[in-house]
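STRUCTURE REQUEST FORM
Protein name: Alpha/beta hydrolase
Source organism: Kitasatospora kazusensis
Requested output: structure tokens
Priority: standard
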Amino acid sequence: MAFLDLDGLRCHVQRLGPQDGRPPAATVVLLHGLLTDSLASYYFTLAPALAAAGLDVLMYDHRGHGRTARPPAGYRLEHFVDDLEALLDRLEITGPVQLVGNSFGGTVAFGLAARRPAQVAGILAIESEPASRAWAVKLDGILRKAERHLAEEETLAWVAEQRGRHTARLARSAGALLAGTSLARDIPASLLPAEAELRAIRCPVLAVYGTESDLAPQAAWLDGLLADCRSTFVPGQEHSVLIEAPETVRALTLSWLREHGARLRGGAARREVERSVR
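Status: completed
Returned output:
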């Protein structure tokens, strides 16, 4: 565990790597979603398997989340992309990296690819999309609703009863983030990339959706927008694919990385890849 200063932001960073002493097969940056998410999500899903396969795995908590500092303002999308840029610069990671983004984390990944195309080797976007006017309008509604309801004790009690105490604690923390910062107003006011900037993203993209997710219908649009994009669907899943179907996501991720040049190591990695293509 480490804390790094990113242009005045105290950022919580975790890094896992191969234990065999050999150079890593590739560098993968894992980007989590908004509000109830943090880098901890990846500890129970992707990160250990990726490190065991010989990859350099970099995770960090977004501003306001997890153990990273929570400034009262500064939560537009471009600020999150700035943080990712600063982190890569601070760690002197100059070569192209693979980005894996869950939900809002994928939106940050697309933001970096539009800004620094030479530094992004590929994107695996889990239940995610690039920022657009429609995205901003949708997030405005979601965040305003969350800001209102997560301040209500009856809502938190319902979450505890229906989803368990751990989820209720995450919901309470999300409510505190919304109440104590400008995030709910900043995200919809983000500087949005022009469609031409998104079309200029040339790196390969794999978009992963749950078949029951409200994002699944956008697959055809995203495939048509980006130069090298394909979509895959996880049966029976909604938005929480990463948490609800971690074995499937691990297999898809390892297969994707191997397909795009990562020399994965270990029998577990081979088995995960074989499972994904059956």
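Reviewer notes: The radius of gyration is 18 Å. The domain at 2-130+192-276 is CATH 3.40.50.1820 (Rossmann fold).
Form closed.
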